[in-house]
Specification:
The complex is a heterodimer of chains A (about 110) and B (about 120).
Chain A lengths: L4 E3 L2 E5 L4 E6 L6 E7 L6 E6 L5 E4 L2 E5 L5 E6 L8 E8 L6 E3 L3 E6 L1
Chain B lengths: L4 E3 L2 E4 L5 E6 L6 E8 L3 E9 L2 E4 L8 E7 L2 E6 L8 E8 L8 E3 L3 E5 L1
Classes of the chains: A mainly beta (about 110), B mainly beta (about 120).
């Protein structure tokens, strides 16, 4: 059973466009992380959200944690080719010791 | 900090051979995770350690896979005997379990090809 579902699976857009990707679950998480992975490299941590309704901004990236802590979204404003990569969300339950990863959204930003 | 270090970066071996992957976590981190990534199955957790003790190995595919963490600065993942279906990218990650969530720092991965 996939606890975290990410959508869309693939997204191809032009430079300058805005986009939103989603991470959904029926489970409640104590925290949720977003990672970006570029080809040939390991995932890199972007942000952690822990409070229901929390919004965090990282330059052109805006992350939101759902009020019920079951879902999250990542919005990118004015996407650039450097944003290209696989975006992974990972949720951790209280005292679980480990995270569950979604299958990711592969983003391609064309110049 | 050098980050998580993995070796080798690439490994090509023949079916039936033993393969050993190595990982050096970030100094001071007390949790270490081994993952496998493929196009078909995504990122799968194989095993994780806390304070050098294996906590959950339910993701290890079968008895051919084993992992050890003899001390806080070194871990190995061994496959014996290897099979073509083991071909994947294997990642090691470490975490300091800081308050607020499990933030993991990944190594560059080992790309394993079993022919």
């Amino acid at each position: 059973t996939q606890l975290l579902e990410q959508s869309p699976q693939f997204l191809s857009i032009q430079e300058g466009e805005n986009l939103t990707v989603y991470c959904n679950s029926s489970s409640v998480f104590s925290s949720l992380q977003w990672y970006r992975q570029e080809p040939g490299e390991g995932p890199v941590l972007l942000v952690t959200v822990v409070t229901g309704g929390e919004v965090k901004k990282l330059k052109r990236l805006t992350f939101q944690f759902g009020d019920a802590r079951k879902d999250s979204s990542l919005h990118i404003t004015a996407a650039q080719p450097g944003d290209t990569g696989l975006y992974l969300c990972a949720g951790a339950r209280t005292n679980a010791g480990k995270s569950t990863f979604g299958d990711g959204t592969t983003l391609t930003v064309k110049p | 900090d050098a980050g998580v270090i993995q070796s080798p970066r690439h490994e090509v071996t023949e079916m039936g051979q033993e393969v050993t992957l190595r990982c050096k976590p970030i100094s001071g981190h007390n949790s270490l995770f081994w993952y496998r990534q493929t196009m078909m199955r995504g990122l799968e957790l194989l095993i994780y350690f806390n304070n050098n003790v294996p906590i959950d190995d339910s993701g290890m595919p079968e008895d051919r896979f084993s992992a050890k963490m003899p001390n806080a600065s070194f871990s190995t993942l061994k496959i014996q005997p290897s099979e073509p279906r083991d071909s994947a990218v294997y990642f090691c990650a470490s975490s300091g379990q800081a308050g607020g969530g499990i933030e993991q720092y990944f190594g560059p991965g080992t790309r394993l090809t079993v022919t």
